[in-house]
Amino acid sequence: MNLRKLARGRDCQVRIPGVCNRDPSTTVLAHIRLPGVSGVGMKVPDILGAWACSDCHDAIDGRAKTFEGAETLRLYHLEGMARTISELLKEGHTL
């Protein structure tokens, strides 16, 4: 199962208030960045990602400035990852 391809055309699951553009045509799989899981030479497993619109993805990756702090953005991203996994399971995908 290609989780990156499955993200295309999906609703954003990160949903940062005042940031999310709610445009499924911009949705990609946004990987969580965690010490010990990501970094130089370490590829994050696709299961550790959330369906994110381009604006939410830019915010959680720090490319766009928001009024949210880093910890709040991390929480939105983690909640989005949980919602993404939940959607995949509802659709019958095995992880």
How would you summarize what this structure contains?
The chain is an alpha+beta fold.
Summing up helix and strand content along with how strands pair, one would put the structural category as alpha+beta
Query: What is the strand tally?
Result: 2
Strand arrangement within the widest β-sheet reads 1-2
Percent in helix: 25-40%
β content, as a range? Answer: 5-15%
Can you write the helix and strand succession as a string? HEEHH
**Between the first and last Cα atoms, what is the distance in angstroms?**
9 Å
Per DSSP, the total helix count is 3
Approximate shape:
globular
Overall average residue pLDDT: 93
The unreliable regions are: none
Rg over CA atoms, rounded to whole Å, is 13 Å
Secondary-structure map:
Layout: H1 3-6, E1 28-31, E2 49-52, H2 54-60, H3 70-90
Antiparallel strand pairs: 1-2
Description of the structure:
It is globular and about 35 Å long. The mean pLDDT is 93. 34% of the residues lie in helices and 8% in strands. The relative contact order is 0.24. It is of the alpha+beta class. The chain has three helices and two strands; from the N terminus they run H-E-E-H-H. The protein has a two-stranded antiparallel sheet with strand order 1-2.
